[in-house]
Write a structure and sequence with these properties.
Elements: E1 7-12, H1 19-29, E2 33-35, E3 38-40, E4 54-56, H2 59-67, E5 71-77, E6 80-85, H3 86-94, E7 98-102, H4 105-114, E8 119-124, H5 128-138, H6 143-157, E9 165-168, H7 172-187, H8 190-193, H9 196-199, H10 203-207
Parallel strand pairs: 1-7, 1-8, 2-7, 3-4, 8-9
Antiparallel strand pairs: 3-6, 5-6
Helix pairs in contact: 1-7, 5-6
């Protein structure tokens, strides 16, 4: 079976917009989609496994890799460092995988600068009022946490124009299907389908890369 083109797929959006639900569903329902695995300096928890949940490294090792430019994005979160290894992305994308990165706006913009093949989707709530209702409906966060999340949501939503797609999550089922449709369309993008590494496996696509006939030489 021929390999389909792979690419990094970034999914961002404010807390409560439905990212986790959309990401989990896409991984279960889109063949060839996989979750990116990050390096982290935080300690392993419970049954977490090396190379499955994270790549666990020491702080000095992480910083050395960062300084060598080995991460396509990195961040300091609650005192721990996290970063996406460029080598991991290159390997999996070379295998035709759609590598899903569920990351914040800061990380998404780093990937935008480093990976021209990346596809960025911003998941938008229908409104701030709807987002607040969802956050309060969880019954898991204190009032100050909810207010902080809403403030962060306003900042994050202001960056949506920097993404390739904005999907408004009015209905979770529709949103999931919309994101999968984006993946399907991006797999068929001409720049991917007609790349050298792909057309060698599909001669009919190689023909599509031939120079068009000069004006007046079209077949009639």
């Amino acid at each position: 079976m021929k390999r389909r083109p792979g690419f990094p797929l970034v999914l961002s959006g404010p807390s409560g917009a439905g990212k986790s639900s959309v990401a989990a569903w896409l991984l279960d329902n889109e063949p060839g989609a996989m979750l990116s695995i990050s390096c982290t300096t935080r300690a392993r928890r419970g049954r977490e496994a090396e190379g499955i949940d994270y790549f666990y490294v020491g702080e000095s090792d992480f910083l050395a890799r960062r300084d060598r430019g080995e991460f396509v994005e990195w961040a300091l979160v609650h005192g721990n460092l996290y970063g996406t290894p460029a080598s991991f992305l290159d390997q999996r994308i070379g295998e035709g995988k759609v590598v899903l990165l569920d990351i914040d706006v800061q990380g998404a913009m780093q990937i935008r600068a480093r990976r021209k093949d990346a596809v960025l989707i911003f998941l938008m709530p229908p409104s701030l009022a709807a987002l607040e209702e969802r956050l309060r409906g969880r019954h898991t966060d204190a009032e100050d946490v909810i207010e902080r999340r809403l403030k962060a949501a306003r900042r994050e939503m202001a960056t949506a124009a920097a993404y390739d797609y904005v999907v408004v999550n009015h209905d979770l089922e529709t949103t999931r299907e919309t994101v999968r449709a984006i993946v399907t369309a991006e797999r068929s993008r001409a720049a991917r389908m007609l790349s050298d590494e792909y057309v060698d496996e599909e001669p009919i696509l190689a023909a599509a890369r031939m120079e068009p006939p000069a004006q007046g030489e079209e077949s009639r």
